[in-house]
Write a structure and sequence with these properties.
The protein is an alpha/beta fold. The longest helix has 19 residues, at 460-478.
Length: 579
């Protein structure tokens, strides 16, 4: 079986037999498509035999017969529609593979540059140069009327939705690799925030002004900035619709929208934020209020809450608590304070290796741990918080706690324009490959950051490692190549257990420890003064002067060696799977 890969999600080959299906399954193919009608030749295996073999091996079967030498535009449209329904990778076959390759090229004409199409087919061993004019014609015909008549019809090699850490870092990394690339960023905000610094603002270490810069200062000069919000996605037409109705086209789309803080999910919370002792370091405007409360609190009950996952920077709720406790400890106030950590989850931290060091500080500060306590409502005037408590039997009860100060971490969701889009998974998050960061259904779309469904910690450190992976794979995709840069799930959470010491949690997928520094320099599972220096002095500079400028210090992506067989085994379909 001679397999030729066109993209990570589709390969083609000549006629296969039922015996080949098991081999195809072992190579990672999740679906097989026949583009060859029965009885084309006497030695041709029956399609029903291959279909039955697919059923035995758990491989999906698709049948789209096309007459050799008579491929119509309708055939190409049917191919595109069928690919939209397939969960790949898929192996398509005909007599020689040429028919399948041609169908793919014609189906992708409205969305891929003709040179990228022909380069991909040539690399797979099929010369389709004779189809150039037809591919061009289909590309023009494939544009819907609204795309031709609405807006300015502007189109970019790479369009980025989101000008936060992810979007800016990807743009900078792309320009480092290819300075003449036509890039645009859609971003409505005029300010860019260094959000990891807000914990230190709330702890009296940073000034709030040190965590923000004008967006125009961090936006690369070579990038077109659409100072507007993205409204909807039209991946079938390779367009993003802005809030004013203008449509912006792209060859490759990068989506980095962040996430949404759902303050309204907790009744009474929004109305009392910033007053009545209710605060949160998750807001730029409120972090200074946290520090004011810490300094003014001398006795009574202080609550720190954490909602169900996922949230960005899962350690942030307890970072605020530790810094507050350290201040109270240094000022001999702990004896007069009842401090409680109310966590909707069942563990102090998701990676067990770091829990022993954290527990030492829980005991030192006399913190009461309340697991399976989910904040349900806040009454600022009465200074009470209502929690839903789940016991070991799964039964839920309600308990009310008074407070003098409460630091709230709100529930967090995907942005609505993502959740309501074709790009979302069942839970509303960007549906991405956890390794390549490519969208699982639309191969000309990549994503990164807090809005994705990849199972990594949602931290700026994760974005720092994701951005070069996305940049590398976007450029390869523009050239018609398979993504080969791999993200290992790295995330970092510098847990500020006291002023001057940090437990530097660094881990990847599955909780695997991924320390940046040797153990003799920084023992990540223990409190470290050097880690504090890194957090306070080095990381802000690394963010502004390194990450946002495409300098990939300690963040070079891993590139897999080329393998003509299937490399991406995620549930996916054709790399431009858009009917």
């Amino acid at each position: 079986m001679d397999v030729h890969q066109l993209s990570p999600f589709i390969s083609v080959c000549s006629q296969i037999t039922a015996a080949d299906v098991g081999l195809a399954a072992s190579m990672g193919f999740k679906a097989i498509m026949s583009n060859r009608p029965d009885n084309e030749s006497e030695d041709q295996p029956a399609n029903d035999e291959i279909r039955e073999a697919c059923e035995r091996h758990g491989v999906a079967w698709y049948y789209l017969p096309v007459i050799s030498g008579q491929i119509t535009d309708e055939n190409a449209a049917d191919f595109r529609e069928m690919m939209a329904a397939i969960r790949g990778p898929v192996l398509a076959f005909c007599r020689t593979g040429t028919r399948c390759c041609t169908l793919w090229a014609l189906a992708e004409a409205p969305r891929l540059d003709v040179e990228a199409i022909l380069k991909a087919t040539e690399a797979a061993g099929y010369d389709l140069s004779a189809q150039r004019e037809r591919i061009n014609a289909l590309a023009n015909e494939g544009l819907p009327a609204q795309a031709i008549t609405s807006g300015s019809g502007r189109r970019h090699d790479v369009l980025i939705v989101g000008g936060g850490a992810g979007g800016q870092s990807v743009a900078a990394s792309l320009l480092k690799r290819k300075p003449d690339l036509n890039i645009a960023i859609i971003e409505p905000r005029t300010e860019h925030f260094y959000q990891p610094g807000w914990t230190l603002v709330g702890g009296g270490v940073f000034e709030r002004k040190d965590t923000v810069r004008p967006m125009e200062q961090v936006m690369p000069d070579q990038v077109k900035w659409y100072h507007a919000a993205a409204s909807t996605f039209e991946p079938k037409q390779q367009q993003v619709v802005l809030e004013d109705g203008e449509r912006i086209g792209y060859r490759m789309l990068v989506v980095s929208p962040g996430l949404r803080l759902d303050w309204d999910a907790i009744p009474g919370l929004r109305e009392t934020l910033g007053s009545n002792g209710v605060t949160s370091n998750y807001l730029f405007d409120l972090a200074p209020y946290t520090w004011d409360l810490v300094q003014s609190t001398r006795k009574g009950k202080s609550l720190f809450t954490q909602p169900p996952m996922p949230i960005k920077c899962a350690g942030a709720p307890q970072k605020a608590m530790y810094l507050a406790c350290d201040y109270w400890h240094r000022n001999n106030r702990l004896g007069e304070l009842d401090i409680q950590f109310c966590n909707a989850g069942g563990a102090l931290f998701g990676v067990a290796d770091y829990v022993p060091a954290l527990m030492e500080y829980i005991e030192k500060y006399g913190i009461e741990l309340n697991f399976m306590h989910n904040l349900a409502a806040v009454d600022g005037q009465a200074k009470t918080a209502l929690f839903k408590v789940t016991d070991g039997e799964g039964q839920v009860s309600e308990i009310e706690k008074p407070f003098d100060m409460i630091h709230v971490c709100p529930p967090q969701k995907s942005p609505k324009f993502i959740a309501d889009s074709p790009l979302a998974d069942a839970d509303g998050w960007l549906d991405l490959s956890p390794e390549t960061m490519q969208h699982k259904q639309f191969g000309d779309i990549f994503g990164l950051g807090d809005g994705g469904n990849t199972p990594n910690a949602k931290t700026a450190a994760a974005v720092r490692k994701q951005a070069p992976v996305v940049a590398e794979n976007v450029l390869r995709a523009l050239e018609g190549e398979a993504p080969r840069a791999i993200y290992d799930g790295y995330g970092s959470c510098p847990l500020t257990v006291e002023r001057g010491k940090i437990v530097l949690a660094e881990f990847g997928y599955g909780g695997k420890l991924l320390p940046t520094f040797p153990n003799w320099l920084v023992q990540g599972t223990r409190p470290s003064k050097l880690s504090w220096l890194l957090k306070e002095k080095m990381l802000p500079w690394l963010y502004w002067e390194g990450m946002l400028k495409g300098r990939e210090w300690l963040a070079k992506p891993e590139i897999l060696a080329h393998n003509p067989a299937v490399q991406d085994t995620s549930d996916a379909c054709d790399w431009n799977n858009k009917p």
